[in-house]
Design a protein that fits this description.
Oligomer: single chain
Number of helices: 4
Protein name: Peptidase M10 metallopeptidase domain-containing protein
Order of helices and strands: HHHEHEE
Keywords: Hydrolase, Metal-binding, Metalloprotease, Protease, Signal, Zinc, Zymogen
Cofactor: Zn(2+)
Pfam families: Peptidase_M10 (PF00413)
Distance between the termini: 62 Å
Strand content: 5-15%
Strand order of the largest sheet: 2-1-3
Helix content: 40-55%
Number of strands: 3
Family: Belongs to the peptidase M10A family.
Length: about 150
Amino acid sequence: MTLFSVLFAVFLSLTFVFAEDDDKTMALKYLSQYHYVSPARSGNHNVKTATFAGLPVTGELDDATIKQMKKPRCGMPDVDEDGRAKRYKTGSKWSKEQLKYFVEHGADLPHSTQDSVFEKALKFWSDVSGLSFSKASNAREADLKIR
């Protein structure tokens, strides 16, 4: 075996290790960001990402799980502070095309400014998605709750 062959083999193995580490790092950040792993607890965690996303449970960080974790999604955690799953699901489609939204206004900007920003953002979505959005008068009748 030539020196070049040995160096090339080492390079390929390092490339594979770094790619695997990138997926593992990405997965850990995902699990932390969406509260599957609690920043307040140490030790073993009961991670139920696969069942929440509708994937088969393998106990491994497999290609299907990585692919699901890399999909665009909202920034809200899937699990609350007590480890309970929230009521929405990743990867699902709306069963309707006309959606109502409700804005729970923050204290940092005038309500009219917040309303205008969300109206413009939802207009971008409606222009490319086939969905339409209208403002709900209360949170109970809303499909989207913006906090």
